[in-house]
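Work Package 3 (structural annotation) set out to generate three-dimensional models for the target panel prioritized at the project kickoff. During this period the team completed the workflow that converts sequence records into discrete structure tokens, so that structures can be stored uniformly alongside our sequence database. As a representative example, we reproduce one entry of 179 residues exactly as it appears in the project archive.
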Amino acid sequence: MTREVPESHPLNRLFRGMTEYTFMTELGIGDPRLVGYVADLLARFVPSQRIWRLRDAQGRRLTEVTAMVAEAESTPNVERRCECHRHVGDYTLFWTGVYPEALPRLQSIESPDHLINYQRQGKRSYYLASTLLDDDEAPVLRRLSDEFELCAFGLSRVRREWEKSEAEPPRGPTPGFGF
């Protein structure tokens, strides 16, 4: 079983700060719930097993979007359907925004996902998940559906920021000054 990154973990704070900064300054999006959801998505997918956490009835890992959608559509359980659609939205947003260079491999000619459009499917899945919820998260999922491309672009900018921070030397006390 994969553990999630605790909310108090520095990685969560890093993703939250970078996402808030990027979405506000570059995209003009100051919606704390939307930005928080996107930042949490990054932290949830840090343990790479979480990306492929959905399993079918036989316990097999679902690794293609088409299989995830089929699982959502075949279950009579509304909670499970919502969970699957939300995961498809998260999965497609993650790959489209953070690692678009991986899409050709994920959608290779040998893949069942070859003919699907990740952006369209992500928008559709977030929309469907939003219609299955009666709580306060439904508007966030609806907004992710409506603004999928903008959020994917925002995630690409967050990635740029973390790559930039990795290239910078660590900040700290200046040697020789006794700090």
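The chain has eight helices and no strands.
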